[in-house]
Amino acid sequence: MLLALDAMGGDNAPKETCAGAVMACGKFPDLEIALVGDTEEVKPLVENAPASVRTRLHLVHAEEKITMDEPPAVAVRKKRHSSLRIAMQMVRSGEAVGCVSAGSTGAIVAGGVLVVGRIPGIERPGLGVPLPAVDRISMLIDIGATVRCKPMNLYQFALMGDVYMRKIIGVENPSIGLLSNGQEEVKGDELIIETREYFRKGKLNFIGNVEGGGIPFGVADVVVCEGLTGNILLKFIEGTGEALYSLVRDEINRRFLPKVGMLFMLPMLKDLWTRFNYEEIGGTPLLGVNGAVIKAHGRSRARAVCGALGVARGFVSKKGVETIAEELSEGVRTE
Amino acid sequence: MLLALDAMGGDNAPKETCAGAVMACGKFPDLEIALVGDTEEVKPLVENAPASVRTRLHLVHAEEKITMDEPPAVAVRKKRHSSLRIAMQMVRSGEAVGCVSAGSTGAIVAGGVLVVGRIPGIERPGLGVPLPAVDRISMLIDIGATVRCKPMNLYQFALMGDVYMRKIIGVENPSIGLLSNGQEEVKGDELIIETREYFRKGKLNFIGNVEGGGIPFGVADVVVCEGLTGNILLKFIEGTGEALYSLVRDEINRRFLPKVGMLFMLPMLKDLWTRFNYEEIGGTPLLGVNGAVIKAHGRSRARAVCGALGVARGFVSKKGVETIAEELSEGVRTE
Hints:
By secondary structure, chain A is α/β, with parallel strands linked by helices. Chain A contains 13 helices and eleven strands. Chains A and B meet through helix 9 and helix 10 of A and helix 9 and helix 10 of B.
C-alpha cells in the first residue's frame, strides 16, 4: 500500500514527518510511503533508516511548500508544485491510495476539494476527530473544514460520521447528537432547528440535541457541529490539557509531599494518559473527499505522524471512501 | 441592601435557594433578601434561621413558577405571577436593587429584556462568566443570552465586558479577544471579520482573534463569542471536570497505591480545587439590562446561591449597571 506524505507540512517538518514515516514503515510491513518535499532536505533524514524500511520510502520532489500564514485556497491554487498539492495529485491519479499532511487545515481542505475532488452528492467536506470520552470514542465532526454550515452540511457530516463509526471503528448503529445550547427541542438557532428536520426524515440513529457537557461522557458516538464551534472546542481541549499539566507540574515542584504522592500515582496517570493521549490516536480523516486524505496535527512529532499514517492505512484497507460513496448513492441511511 | 431572590428557580429550589439566602445573610450583615416564591413552601425553610438573619429575610408570595421545559419568552410573558417575573419587577420598580435566579437561562434573559428592560443603546444582553485561567480570571461573554449574534452584538459584549473587568474585577485596560478558529486575520467567518471592523474603529484594547486553546492560559481578559459557542464551551468545561473527577475516583478505588498517593496530594488538590471551583465564583451578571440581574447555575446548591448573592451585592455596590450605562452614553471606549 502506497501512501503519500506531505513531508514539508507542519510545525516540525520535514524532520519529524520523515522520522514518522520511518517509524510507520517499521510498524507496518505492507506500507510504502512517498515522501513529497524538497528532496535535498528529505534525503539525509531517511538515508540512515534500516534497509528494510528505506526500500519502502520513495522520494518525490516538490519545489514549493504551503505555509500557515497564506490564505489557504489561494495558496493551493497558485502553488502547483507544492508538496501538499503533489501529494494530493498522487491520490487523485491513483498513484497513491491516500495521503497524510500536518499542514494548515485550510490548505488540506482546499486541496481536498480542488485536487482530490468531492464524493458525488457531498456538498462540503467535514473533518472528524475521534475524541476519547469516559467509556467510548466519540467522533466530533466538523472541527474546521467548513467554518459555517447549512443544515444539509451538518446532516451530511452525520451521514459520514455514521459510516466512519460503523465501518472503521466498528460501532453498531452509532448514535448521532446535534451539538446545541440545550437538549430541549426549543433550544438552538434556525440552523439547528432546520437540521433536525433532516434527521426526522432520515434513518440515522439520531438522539437529538446534545450539550457540551455530554461530550466528555460520550453522550453520542457522533457529535455534529459547525467547523467554527468544533475548532474552538478541540483547541480548548488541547489547551486545557497543556494548562493542567503545567499547573500540576508547578504545584509539584513547589511542594514536597505531592512529589512523594506522585510516585505512587504514576502507574495510574500513565494508564489514563495512554487512554486519552490525542497524539496516539493520530490523524483525522477529511470526510467527503473522493480519496483518503488524513490531517495530522500541525504540531505533530514523529509519533503522531506515524499515528496518522496508521489511521490512513486503516481507512484505506477498510475502504472508507468507497463505503461513504456507495452508501450515499444507495441512500442506505438516508430517506 | 435589598436583593430579590427567585426562590423557586433552579434544580434544587426552593430548599437550596433558601439555604443559600440564609448563608448569604449570615455572611453579609448589610444584606436583606426578598425570597420570592410559594410562601407555604419557603416559610418552613427559613424559620429556623438565627434571629439576626431571619429579620432580614422577607417573604414575597408568587403563585407560579417557570420550569426548564417551557419556551422561555412565552413563559415570562404569560406567567405574570411567576417568582422570576415578580423578582424582576421588584428590580424594575426600584424596590430591590438587584435580583438573583438559578432558573432557566432563557427565562432570565427574556425577563431581563421584557421586565427589567435594556440599557439604552444596548441591542442584546450578554451573559458573562468569569473563568479561572492559569494566571488570571478571564471573562467569557456571551454564554447563552444571545444564541446567534450580529457584529454589533459581539462588539457591545466586548464594551460591557471591558467595563465589568475594569470596574468590578479591577483589571486595568483589559485585553479583549474575539474567539475564532485561528489567530490570523484571514480566519473566521463573515461575522468575525465584520466584528473586527468595529474594534478597529473603537478604543478598546483589542488583541485580535484568539483561539480556544488560549482560554485556559488566560489569553485575554475578555473573550467574546456568540451565545451558542459560549454555552457549548462552558458546559463542556463543567462536563470535563465531572468526567475527570469520576475517572480518577474510579481508578483510585480500583488500585491501592494511588490511594496512598492521594493522601500525600490532598493539600495540593484542595488548593487547586479552591482556585478553580466554579461554584465558589457563583453567579454571572446579565450585562446590558437596566438593573443588576445575576444568573446562578441551574444546579446551584446553597453555597453557589450564596456566591451568586455575593456577586449581585458586589455588582450593585460597585455601580455596575450605572457605569455601563454612563460609559455607553458618553462613548468612553467607543469611537
